[in-house]
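User: Show me a protein chain along with its predicted structure.
Assistant: Here is one chain, sequence first, then structure tokens.
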Amino acid sequence: MSNRIFLSILLVCFLAPTQAIAYDGLKQDFATCTQGSGKVANTTIVKACTRLIDNAAKQNSLTGYFYALRAIANTDRASNCKDARQALKLLDNPDLIKHARTLEKMNCKG
């Protein structure tokens, strides 16, 4: 899960301030999606990241980061492939793109 730690650090450095998304549970979902590894079940992380994606005001690099984190936590390779590819479309930071490409290679066939 070192990818999750690295991506979380990069989020703080490169993606703040965040896009305007607001709903009940936003802070908890953000914490769970970005820092839940090893603290909560992966299914809980996937659900939190999904809510962040679904409630995003727009698709941008921050949303791409949530797609990448969901792909790290999820066990469904087909879903992870889609998430990695969506992250690649949205991310603009070269380091994050590099990690998303790794996720794509790990989960996508061919």
